[in-house]
Write a structure and sequence with these properties.
The protein is an alpha/beta fold. The chain is built from ten helices and 13 strands. The structure holds uridine-5'-diphosphate (UDP). Uridine-5'-diphosphate binds next to helix 6 and strand 8.
Length: 303
């Protein structure tokens, strides 16, 4: 198939591109390299379009379009909130127009962040969320919510074949070391034997999915006939303190743990309910946290 990956030079995007090529597809990447990196995709048989999807685009037809083009690390999206809000709203609209014109199937990567600071655990797709519309995370949360709305409306109004993945925290090789996210921060700190920085009391939870599992879930969702949102995540929930302790053990680090202020609106608990993915996509994560952290540590050790 001819497949377009918007945001294909980013962390999840570049792993997806590699898989799609291995599966025999002809892949085009569109990326403005704001957080994506050329080194993630170079040397492969792909077309690369250097473009910001916020700006209007005219594309040749693709069979499938994956939209992963957005800043995703809280540190970075909070530095560029307007850009982030527009990538997931105007950017989604631009790609949807192209999908409608060429009858492409399109998958939007939404996020667990649309559940906000959830009042229900684990988070089912039916839960509407608890989101601050004017906070420092809103540029990401609310624009992903609007992105979902646009996907559903293009489907209902124009019959575009749309798919929505709600991706939970994902980690693995090729994460940017200065991404500011918890897994990359902890592993880098541990490898350098410098203090591991826990924000807040470390009791907040996340559920981490290894990149190969996430990519597999995205491809299965794209090739299903299911239009409503599907959670793609690993339900192995842990506190940030537990994560820090695991990382210290795996890296045999001398690092101490230090505590600093919890960022504003930081969700207290997050864990996906993945029954839909299991039933509809016959998908569930296969790589546990210890194996995944080992593989990720190898990557950072080389860097
Ligand atoms: N966090 C932390 N130390 C760090 C980076 C992040 O304790 O060096 C915490 C952060 O406050 C949050 C969790 O780890 O509670 C996950 O943060 P991340 O930015 O990776 O992703 P999020 O799920 O918040 O989008």
């Amino acid at each position: 198939m001819k497949i377009l990956v918007a945001g294909g030079a980013g962390f999840i995007g570049c792993h997806l591109v590699k898989r799609l090529i291995e599966d025999g597809n002809k892949v085009t990447v569109i990326d403005n390299f704001s957080s994506g990196r050329m080194e993630n995709i170079k040397g492969q048989d792909i077309n690369i379009i250097n473009h910001n999807i916020i700006d209007k685009i005219t594309l040749s037809g693709f069979d499938q379009i994956y939209h992963l083009a957005s800043l995703a690390s809280p540190v970075f999206y909070q530095k560029n909130p307007v850009e982030t809000a527009l990538s997931n709203s105007v950017g989604t609209y631009n790609l949807l127009n192209e999908a409608q014109k060429h009858k492409s199937r399109i998958l939007f990567t939404s996020t667990s962040e649309i559940y906000g600071d959830p009042k229900e655990h684990p988070q089912k797709e039916e839960y509407w969320g608890n989101v601050n519309s004017i906070g420092i995370r809103s540029c990401y949360d609310e624009s992903k919510r609007l992105g979902e709305t646009l996907m559903m409306d293009f489907n209902r109004e124009y019959g575009v074949e749309t798919r929505i993945a709600r991706i939970f925290n994902t980690y693995g090789p090729k994460m940017s070391p200065d991404d500011g996210r918890v897994v990359s921060n902890f592993i880098n700190q541990a490898l350098k034997n410098i203090p591991i920085t826990i924000y807040g009391d470390g009791k907040q939870t996340r559920s981490f999915c290894y990149i190969a599992d996430t990519v597999d879930g995205l491809i299965k969702l794209m090739n299903s006939d299911y239009t409503e949102p599907v959670n793609i995540g690993n339900p192995e929930e842990m506190t940030m303190l537990e994560l820090a302790e695991r990382v210290i053990k795996i890296t045999h680090s001398q690092s101490k743990i230090i505590y600093s202020a919890l960022p504003k609106d930081d969700p207290v608990r997050r864990c996906p309910y993945i029954m839909k993915a299991k039933k509809i996509l016959k998908w569930e994560p296969e790589i546990g946290i210890n194996e995944g952290l080992e593989k990720t540590t190898e990557h950072f050790r080389k860097l």
